[in-house]
Amino acid sequence: MRLARLILWFERRPLLRFVLALIALLPACFVTWYFLGATLAAPSALLADAMLGLWLPGVVAETRLTGTEFMVLSGYGEVGGRFYPAEEAGNQLAYPINTRTLSYSMPFFAALYLATPVRGGIDRFAWSFLALWLLLALGLVATTLKNYLLSMGDAFIALDGVPPAAAIALAYQFSTLMVPPLAPVVLWAYAVGDSSAFRGLFTGVESPENATD
C-alpha cells in the first residue's frame, strides 16, 4: 500500500520526474557530445567556412577542422608589427577556435528533449538541431572576427566589408555568453511546447484526460 501511494505521489509530480530524468540524462548526453565532438561540429564548420569565404575572401585564406579545433588561416602575415599579404610577409596568421566552447548547447538540448516524454516530434527535434548548427556556425564567424580584431586592430577594421569593432564585440559576446545556455531552452520549448508532458511541468499535475500528446 505504501509503495502504491509512493508511486502515485511520484506520478502526480511531473516536474520532479522531469528534473530527475534530466539529471540522469545530462551526463550521458555530454559524454556522447565529447566523443562525437568533431562529427557534431563538422556541419557548422562547413557553413562557417562558406560564410567567411563569401564575406571576407581576401582576409580568410582557408579554414580547417582538426578534431574539435576550427583553424582559420589568414590571408595576412605580420612583419615588424605591420600586416601584409601572406605572400609578401612570408608568414601567415592563424586563429584556432575550440568548437566545444560553443557547441555545448547540443547535449544540453538533447537532454532537455529526451527528459520530456513526447510521442513523435522527430521533425521538430531535427529542425532544432539544424538551428543549433546554424547558431554554432555564426558563433565561429563571430569568434573569428574577434580574433582578427584583437590581433590586427585598426588594420582589420579598415578592410572592406569588416563591421565596426563594437558590432564585432557584441556579436562575439552574444554568441559565446547568451546563445549556448539559452538557445537549447528556447528550442526545447519549441520542440515539445504543445505536448501534455511539457504543459504538465507548469500545471503541477497531469490530468488523465490530457495524458496523451
Classification by helices and strands: alpha+beta
Query: What would the principal axes of the Cα set say about the shape?
Result: elongated
Low-confidence stretches: 205-213
- Count up the helices: 10
Number of domains: 1
- Measured by DSSP, the beta-strand proportion falls in 5-15%
Measured between the Cα atoms of the first and last residue, the distance is: 30 Å
Order of helices and strands: HHHEEEEHEHHHHHH
DSSP strand count: 5
Quaternary organisation: single chain
Q: The biggest beta sheet, please?
A: 3 strands, antiparallel
Radius of gyration: 23 Å
How much helicity do the residues have? 55-70%
Strand order of the largest sheet: 1-2-5
**What's the average pLDDT?**
86
Q: Describe it for me?
A:
By secondary structure, the protein is an alpha+beta fold. Helices cover 66% and strands 12% of the residues. The chain contains ten helices and five strands. The chain has helices at residues 2-11, 14-35, 37-55, 86-89, 100-103, 105-114, 122-152, 154-157, 165-192, 196-203; strands at 60-66, 69-74, 76-79, 82-85, 94-98. The strands form two sheets. It has a three-stranded antiparallel beta sheet with strand order 1-2-5. Strands 3-4 form a two-stranded antiparallel sheet. The radius of gyration is 23 Å and the shape is elongated. The two termini are 30 Å apart.
